[in-house]
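Run log // design_07
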């Protein structure tokens, strides 16, 4: 059979290529894709050619073997249904809605251990947010917010919104979020942030300190902008911590560490979802974290933040939108049927 696959071929260029797909072999299944979600942060770096050459894509995911470099298939959030079974696969899998960490393709073959069954009653539109919700859960675990703490989140793209949505469920003293785009600030306010501010406003830091007179105990830098990290440090109080969840690719961060930072005992914490913090691994593993992520999807219902749906054949328009008019979008998805 034939499938359509998305390739990043050069900075600012994507192609949809036809490929031949065999029938599933023993222990494997064929998945017909319904939706796949664009990761605007990581895929934006790939689209603009800002990824480090030679870096491994993701050693933990079979579908993302290899290194960054054009031409490149990428994507890690796909939901579809099982349409054919290989020898030895339990018939119960046929017709089931499944999630896979897989690039943007109209259909694909997978081993069962590369798939997760979508919980009963959950739509594909909610399930497509699983990777970003797992990331948000990981950020909250690494930040370890405490009762009554003052918290700030820089960046209200989809990962920032999901992180803020989880934090809003804590009994915090204050939750402030920051993003350049009004659409995202509005979504942030609606989910429960006490205030959502423009980090590019002349009085931004003054506004933050009106909300958090002593600064923030916990700050998340999730904007993808290296300049935001300097701002995040600036609003962090003595002995506070900054969780850095952004991946900057080839972009470098110029930080002012010669002022108050030097004496403030601020902790900078690198947080990335492919692993768990070592101090948690005695009690937590990825299976347990995924269970929490699925439950948080039920509670948060992030499908309301899907702003655009494009057929896979219109992928070029989707990436142009995110690159040239990011203020118009929150979550963009590809439809495949």
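design_07 sequence
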């Amino acid at each position: 059979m034939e499938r359509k696959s998305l390739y990043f071929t050069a900075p600012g260029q994507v192609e949809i290529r036809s490929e031949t797909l065999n029938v599933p072999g023993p222990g494997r299944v064929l998945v017909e894709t319904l939706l796949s979600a664009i990761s605007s942060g990581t895929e934006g770096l790939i689209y603009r050619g800002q990824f480090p050459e030679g870096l491994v894509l993701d050693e933990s995911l079979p579908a993302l073997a290899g290194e960054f470099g054009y031409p490149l298939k990428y994507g890690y959030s796909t939901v579809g249904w099982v349409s054919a079974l290989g020898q030895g696969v339990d018939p119960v899998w046929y017709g089931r809605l499944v999630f896979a960490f897989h690039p943007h393709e109209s259909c694909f073959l997978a081993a069962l251990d590369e798939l997760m069954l979508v919980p009963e009653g959950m739509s594909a539109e909610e399930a497509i947010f699983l990777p970003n919700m797992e990331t948000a859960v990981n950020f909250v675990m690494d930040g370890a917010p405490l009762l009554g703490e003052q918290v700030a989140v820089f960046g209200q793209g989809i990962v920032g919104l999901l992180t803020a949505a989880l934090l809003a469920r804590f009994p915090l003293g204050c939750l402030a979020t920051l993003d350049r785009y009004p659409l995202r600030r509005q979504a942030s306010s609606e989910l429960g942030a006490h205030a959502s501010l423009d980090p590019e406003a002349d009085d931004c830091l003054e506004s933050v300190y009106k909300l958090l007179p002593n600064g923030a105990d916990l700050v998340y830098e999730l904007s993808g902008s290296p300049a935001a990290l300097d701002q995040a440090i600036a609003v962090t109080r003595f002995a506070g911590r900054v969780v850095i969840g952004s991946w900057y690719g080839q972009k470098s961060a110029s930080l002012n560490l010669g002022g108050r930072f030097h004496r403030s005992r601020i902790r900078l914490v690198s947080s990335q979802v492919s692993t768990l913090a070592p101090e948690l691994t005695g009690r937590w593993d990825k299976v347990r974290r995924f269970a929490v992520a699925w439950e948080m999807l039920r509670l948060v219902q992030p499908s309301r933040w899907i702003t655009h749906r494009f057929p896979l054949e219109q992928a070029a328009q989707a990436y142009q939108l995110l690159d040239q008019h990011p203020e118009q979008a929150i979550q963009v998805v590809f439809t495949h049927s």
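DSSP finds ten helices and 15 strands in the chain.
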